[in-house]
Structures are given as structure tokens and as C-alpha cells.
Amino acid sequence: MTVSFKGKTPSRRAFLKGAAAAGGTLAGAGAAHAAGDPEITELQPWMQQLGDGVDVAPYGKPSEYEAHVQRRTVEWLTADPVSSINFTPLHELDGIITPNGLCFERHHSGTAHIDPAKHRLMINGLVDTPLVFNMADLMRFPRENHVYFLECAANSGMEWRGAQLNGCQFTHGMIHNVMYTGVKLKYLLEEAGVKTNGKWIMPEGADAAAMTRSIPMEKALDDCLVVWKMNGEALRPEQGYPLRLVVPGWEGNMWVKWLRRIEVGDEPWHHREETSKYTDLLSDGTARRFTWEMDAKSVITSPSPQAPILHGKGPTVLTGLAWSGRGTIPRVDVTIDGGKTWHEARMSGPSLDKSMHRFYFEFDWDGGELLLQSRAHDSTGYVQPTKDELREYRGTNSIYHNNGIQTWYVNKNGEAENVEVS
Amino acid sequence: TPVMAEKLGLGRPASDDEIAAWDIDIRPDGQGLPEGSGSVMDGEDLYMDQCSVCHGVFGEAEGRWPVLAGGDGSLSDDRPVKTIGSYWPYLSTVWDYVHRAMPFGDAQSLSNDEVYAITAYLMYLNYLVEDDFVLSKENFLEVRMPNEENFFMDDRADAELVAFAKSEVCMSDCKDNVEITARAAIVDVTPEDADAREARAARLG
Q1: Is the CATH number 3.40.50.300 carried by domain A92-288?
Q2: pLDDT of residue A150
Q3: What confidence score (pLDDT) does residue A77 get?
Q4: ipTM score here?
Q5: Which site among A65, A76, A270 would you substitute to test the B interface, given the most B Cβ atoms closer than 10 Å to its Cβ?
Q6: What is the assigned CATH class of domain A297-419?
Q7: Are A288 and B154 within 8 A, CB to CB?
Q8: Stated pTM of the model
């Protein structure tokens, strides 16, 4: 008997595509098969033949059928792929932890590839003793584990003037959420001995952009970490291997990668990434500086433009993510009618400070048009505003810190689109 | 949480030459600024040679590379042009950034005098100085950028957080009518995702 793998034949794919376009009326195991489902009645190769040995993949990869779950770029956003951004495929993920290989990237001079044996961390400036640490030194400090989201300040920035990109990967995917292992920055600063007039720190990267930001000492001593692990393994090169700064709840630009130096000073430095960039222009021509915290925000990841409803009407799972730079997310509301009626979503999974939270809302889809929104409440009482509410305060040229409520329009075929509503 | 009663004695003191090699940052008050000087004329040659291919002969930029000059008075326009002259609050930022990170792909290749000269030329491109200007450590702090006063500390706590903190939110009958006012599909600038969609459909099928 010859067993052919039907899942990959062009005819089957075309058929499924057609079925999806027709409203997903046929859905695999849910459909009636007069002669029995061949996936059951026919012997499949994996039921008969031997699979891979344990020596085939010393470092495993996702199934080949998940090959489309990838970071993606939008070429027209930047001049060059080296100082650029890509996006986490939020629509394909669940839970709250972002797999390391899918964490979005933002570099200013590309991914540096650093030999950890050659990496050094210097602490200098207004300290009693300027110090140099190597990686082995750092691993002898007491360690901490924390799950934090890292959101680029520009996440959703392309949406200030209206609905532009079609998919939550593109509108909300400059974010990831992983468990970091490292040492409290406070311990390193105490080791050097901060002088009484040391009010600011300036972390600096070892890459060719030599990224610098000014961070107030209160934050540095509060919850900042210097980390070398993410989700249990070494940082990925594109996430700062071998060392990065973690600045919980604050804009991603400050999480300096390839961290090589921390200077202590009495004033902020007003460097390029906190003057020309990462300042928020308001409609009157003035600009906010040092807009560090990321405000409470949420997005429905499915259904969404890249994750249409393929199963037809009936039981439907709506899910999404919520987070706040100021605490936890005790509650998310969702609407399926554009905000006429709201429902309290079901939170599932750990609720951790300055971490992503997962929410679900199960409903019975009647096959009609939907306007989906989610509205996060954070532990300070802040409620995620609409985009129009934000525009009233800021205009449309702020670029950064767009945490307005996202709307997806779902048509009768289950296809979703990024829209704005009145 | 472990509390360290005393220092662990890890790491080693940094030497003066090590600090000098890495501590290259400068601040608006001039801290860190090295000895040196450079003229607009010298800066023009350097700029044409090393910068103009990306940033344009007049600082107007090629493609999507950053625009360095122009845009004066445009910050409250519908489409503001944010440049060194129209937006940046401090000249020290120009010096520091050019020195640490430019030219793109050949960072930290410019001497201190060359950075002074390029900074002077960027001032000239922004009509801030005449073509005979020479920038130096001595006169650096005399420069004031046009937009310095228009930056202010994050005021969201007062301006927004109070307004957006709500003890009660509307849950039903919140509006009578909902209209779609903007559509991404009409803008149509999202990268083609057909393969990913097909793969997803096949997997779920």
C-alpha cells in the first residue's frame, strides 16, 4: 500500500483556501464524511514509519507546519534593514511568554555578535570606585527571575493618523514578554558605590550605535536588572547577547542591549535617543521628553486580520493580550459590536507586574458582522483610552506611546480588517 | 530577596585609560567635551565625502535616511519636519551622536576636530552660523538651539492619567450607532501575507 501525504498537495491547499474564502463552511473533523474521514480511515505515514531519532535535532525547531509563524518586516518603514524593526507574530501565539526566536527586533546598527569572553561591563562616573566586570563576575551576584514585557515606544506608531497596517503583528507586534534572569542593577551600583550627587545613570551599548539613554537613579535602584538569560537560555544575539539592561514597564529603547557601560552622573545627558528620538511632539509644536512609562494597552490577537474566523458560525474564541507599564491588569473588557455593549473578559494565566496578561472571551458567533475591541484596566485604575481620546491630548504627530483601543472589523466571511470607528 | 550587607568584592577597578577609551559621552553643559575645533569649510568637505550620500548635499536626505536640515517653524504643521535646526534642543547631542555612531557603518572613525567641523557645517546647513564660523570647545556653550525651550518633562500624570483613570466604565447601551471611519485595507500598505495565511488555513483545516 502506498501512503501519500495529502496535506501538502496543491489541490488540497487550493480546496481549503476556497473553503475558507466561502466562509469556512467545511472544517476538517467537523464536517460529515460519507465514506469516513481519510485522515482516520487511511493509514498515515507517521502511524507506520519511524520518526526522527533523538540525535536529529540537538536544538529543536518548531514543526515545519508552523514555518509561517515568523517575525516579519515592513520594508517601507525604515531606510535600511540594519537600523530597523521587525514584528512579533502575536496573532499566532498564546499564553503570555514570547518564544525567544520570535521576539521582535529593533537595532540601530544591526545585531552585534559578541564573544562573551571579550565582553566587559564598566561602571564609572560619580562612583567611589569605577569598576570593570566580566561575565563570570556578574554571574557571582545574587540572581533574580522576572517576567516583563518589552514594548517599543513606537509600537502602534504607524496608526496615529488612522488605520494603516492590516494585522496585529504589524500594529502591535513591537513587543515581547519573557522571563529574564540576571542581577539587580542596584547591586552593581552598590558595588561601585554611588556618590550622593549621582542622580542619573547612562547605560551604553557595545554595538556600533553605542546606544545611550538617561535613567533616573530612583528607577535604577528600584527594579532595573542587568540580565544574561531570557526564558532560561542565554539572550539571543538580536536581544543583546551577552548582556542587556531591563527597565521594567518603560519604553523598549531604554533596555540597552550589548550593555558595556553604565555611567553615573548628576544630570541627564540629553542624547540623540532622548531628544531627536523618543520625544513626543504635540499638536502645538511643543514636545514631551522623558516619556518613560508604557501606558496600559491591549489588543485582540484572534480574530484579527491575520487570524480570520475560518470555522463558520457557532462557538468562537476571542483572545488577546493586555499589559501596563505601571502594574498588573486585573481586568479587560471586550466588545463585539464596536463599543455599544461591553463584556468582562476572562483572564487566564499569571498576573505579574509589568508583564503581558492573557484574556479570553468565548461567544457564539451568529455569522454577522463584528466590530471587536478590547479595553484594559490596570492596577492603578487607569483605563485604556480610545485613539480619539489620545488624539485630543496629543494630536497625530507623537509617533510614540500610542496605546489607543484597537478595532477589528470582521465580515460575514470571518475575515478581519484594521479599522477605526466613530 | 537577598540583601547584601556589604560589597561582594567582585569586579576590579577600571583604569584611567580604560575609562578614557569608553567614556566618550558629552552633555549640554559641556561635560565630556574634548579639546579641538573645526570650521564650516572643513566640515563641508568632510560632509560631502562621508555624509551626503545618505543625508543629501543640503541635509535634505536621500530616501528615508534622516533629514538633518530645514523644517524651521514646521513643528505644529500637519506634517512637521524635525531636523537638527527645527527640533533638536542641544548642539551637544549633534557632537555626541556624530562622534559615537556616524558615519553609519563606520562609527567612531572621526577625529575630535573632524566632529567639530562636521557639527559646524550642520549648523551652517541649518542657517545657524555664517560660512566662516569655527566651532571649538571654547565657544561651544555659547550656542543655543532654536527649539530648546519647547521640550518639557513628561506630564501625562497630570494631563492624562487623571482623566483616563475611571472608577466606572460604560458596559451597556454605550452608544446608539457605530460607523467605520477608517480602513487599513484602503490604505493597502501591509506586506503581502498570502503564503502565511494559506499555511495557517491549511494547518487549521
Answers
A1: no
A2: 98
A3: 80
A4: 0.93
A5: A270
A6: mainly beta
A7: yes
A8: 0.92
